[in-house]
Design a protein that fits this description.
CATH class: Alpha Beta
Number of helices: 4
Helix content: 40-55%
CATH architecture: 3-Layer(aba) Sandwich
Order of helices and strands: HEEEEEHEHEH
Length: 156
């Protein structure tokens, strides 16, 4: 399937967003004695994806999971599930919010005794409805509007 250059550029911006959030979460994890699970090799799981299983046996690939008692060789108790996303047009913002919701809500239910934080770091164009939907489900949302992202790239 052919990909447009605009689509590929959007993927790059999403990767930059994830790369920018990673060090912040790594420092937070270190400061609070947590393990940060993210994409990449980890001996206690197969593959490179940060995959977690919900109570129904469904697998969810996530951007970041903070764990208590985790280590490269051992999964710990998840205390935070965090997704990042970039969208350029409002047309897809509600779908992305629902995708994030669909991955994290079942995991939060699975690990409800740990009271996990549900977070979304969003950038670009997201409708008020998409943001409200996530917040109404207990998500903490960090949102960088499109103009903010453009200004950052303009100043680089």
């Amino acid at each position: 399937m052919a990909e447009s250059p605009a689509h590929r550029f959007g993927q790059i911006i999403g990767d930059v967003l994830e790369a920018a959030i990673g060090p912040v979460l790594a420092e937070f994890a270190k400061k609070h004695g947590l393990y940060l699970d993210r994409k990449g090799p980890r001996p206690c799981r197969s593959g490179l994806k940060c995959t977690w299983k919900d109570l129904n046996g469904n697998l969810h690939d996530l951007d970041f999971v903070l764990e208590r008692g985790g280590a490269p060789q051992k999964k710990g108790t998840p205390v935070a599930f965090i997704e990042t996303a970039w969208r350029r047009y409002t047309k897809h913002s509600r779908n992305k919010a629902q995708e994030i919701q669909g991955a994290i809500v079942p995991l939060a239910e699975t690990y409800r005794s740990a009271g996990p934080f549900k977070g979304a770091v969003l950038a670009g164009v997201f409708t008020d409805g998409a943001l409200t939907q996530l917040r109404s489900l207990g998500f903490t949302v960090l949102y960088f509007p499109y103009v903010t992202v453009v200004d950052v790239f303009r100043k680089s």
